[in-house]
Amino acid sequence: MSSRSRTVIRGGLVITASDEIHADVLIEDGRIAALAVPGTQSWTADRTIDATGKYVIPGGVDAHTHMELPFGGTFASDTFETGTRAAAWGGTTTIVDFAVQSVGHSLREGLDAWHAKAEGNCAIDYGFHMIVSDVNQDTLKEMDLLVEEGVTSFKQFMAYPGVFYSDDGQILRAMQRSAENGGLIMMHAENGIAIDVLVEQALARGETDPRYHGEVRKALLEAEATHRAIKLAQVAGAPLYVVHVSAMEAVAELARARDEGLNVFGETCPQYLFLSTDNLAEPDFEGSKYVCSTPLRPKEHQAKLWQGLRTNDLQVVSTDHCPFCFVGQKELGRGDFSKIPNGLPGVENRMDLLHQGVVDGHISRRRWIEIACATPARMFGMYPKKGTIAPGADADVVIYDPHAEQIISAETHHMNVDYSAYEGRRLTGRVETVLSRGELVITEREYTGQAGHGAYTPRSTCQYLN
Q1: What are phi and psi of 459, to 5 degrees?
Q2: Which residues pair with 265 in a beta bridge?
Q3: 48 touches 31 (CB < 8 A)
Q4: What are the tens digits of pLDDT across the range 356-372?
Q5: Do the beta carbons of residue 428 and residue 57 sit within 8 Å?
Q6: Which of 115, 157, 331, 361 has the fewest beta carbons under 10 Å from its own?
Q7: What mean pLDDT comes out for the span 245-250?
Q8: Do residues 442 and 369 make contact, with C-beta atoms less than 8 angstroms apart?
Q9: Please, which pLDDT band fits residue 466 given cuts at 50, 70 and 90?
Q10: How far is CA 126 from each of CA 62, 381, 420, rounded to the nearest angstrom?
């Protein structure tokens, strides 16, 4: 970008988490410089974008993605290059991905490996959380160092014994450490020890189809683990962020904790708002396309999740984007649902699906921006650089056409995966143009970005605490 590059976006409705205002937006040197009443400023610019009849919104912040994640003997099919390009197509301009510590290795080794995967390959900005699989004295010391350098959140798993699993003692130690160093513990809350028993019993009964994945990973075991995580965090005096909440019983646990004034937060994902066990039960092994953990729930859970988003018992919608192709990857679990790689593609669809939630009357326009842009940025220490349109913020801006209609399909999506979880779904609203730090990444439905534009973003500690 030249030293004095200026872009003006004219005539649009600027929507942030707090405001809806008709305003012209001036971008200088990759940042928002000013907002003005339409037509009152005769700014000169290198580039003028006409946003008449459109929304001007902050770029989406997807705080939960897994590019190139090793899982179940294979890898997530999106690379940082393909995944961040698809994110941009969907109006997301920042992702926070998960670096993985393998058991027996240091946090630093895991973080370095993820930096190597991402560097020079991303179309949009990115940060990292750290998956902690092996809590010991060295790990705990490393957590302090990572917080200092901008990796301020740590994910633990109550699920997947033998892979990522931490027991209650390890979780408590990590929580105590984060209470001291300002880090945020993110929890995959499912009782993995009990679930493994139910998996074994189901397979012994010959129940091998994908739908049994949903039946063994019971909502009660999500709620139990959520409750236990909350109590451990309370003992440690630490904040807690529960990832991919799918069950109404788990939402009830979060609501109760928040009513007690605890710093407990919850994230859900589009798949839980729009899909259900009906998808897992699709015939001819098609159900495997919808295998993720926590699993899809019966339809009646959807209304409770939307309600949680309205009442702020759930604060964030992320994708948990972790794509595996149906052919050759999901098929690894034919004859044994426990061998189906867990994960769904979605990084490209989140902003549009949530806008459909606005159209359908589930949430307001400002709440859409709050749960998709502003709160994830605040939760993970990137606000107001990310997540809003205000002077000084990064010029991560989306021109959004609220009236355009589209049909989601694997034929037209940009994620590197051979199916769409939302195939054939009609949506109202579509991304038209996307700027990342003032640079055009999507220009009127054409990709004009480049791998390597995306910059690594160190983060401060959680800005969302009571």
Answers
A1: -125, 150
A2: 241
A3: no
A4: 999 999 999 999 999 99
A5: no
A6: 361
A7: 98
A8: no
A9: low
A10: 9, 13, 24
